[in-house]
Amino acid sequence: MELVVLGTGDAFSRTRTGASAVVLAPRGVVLIDAPDGLLRALAEASRASDQALDPMRIDDILLTHLHGDHVNGLEAFGFLRWVERQRSGGTRPRLHTHAAAAARLWERLAPAMDQGGDATLADYFDVRVLPEGGTSDIAGLSVRHRMGIHPVPSCGFLLSDGARTLGWSGDTAWDPAHVEWLSQADFVVHETSGGPTHTPVERLNALAPDVRARMALIHMPDDFDPACTPIRLLRAGDQVRF
Ligand SMILES: [Zn+2]
Question: Fewer Cβ neighbours under 10 Å: the N or C end of the chain?
Fold first, then answer.
């Protein structure tokens, strides 16, 4: 499996795009979360990797939760695709998320995207609610989700191509059961940040060495000290094959 990192920042970063990535799936490119500056981040990651990450060809988006540093990029992405469809047809991007986020997503987007009341969420995205405890086939990946601990409902993902599995924590406070669930994966991208709503790096540093060795960190604050952890730190543009 292969992913390209788009951003590694936390919600307050002055210098980095928010935590997000694209997964090169068997039947397409899957975007995980949509931070501010998404289109710029895709262009920069295309230059840094050997992949052409064209937003017109990203037909599946996985969304962890509705905090702005994970969804603000949906506005430009949604409009870009909508304008293109008016001009030359095509399908809506599919947006996959858990039931709680799906229920309130349009509250988040409508003031900017409802076109005076003429447009609805369905004009921009084909929203697919991830089944509780179930598996979805997304671009040839088998996808499961699990809710973490966060001030708004937030989930992590396990994505498998049948041979390899990627774990993605989403935003979560320290949750040993979440880490255990993610540890089924061959490679785990885990958030870390300050405050009670995120996972302190000390907790991850204390995990078993075989788990830490398969883990990489994302969602770090700008003043994060790389020397404070033996776990790999992701950077925007990283192309990870595992
Ligand atoms: Zn959050």
Answer: C
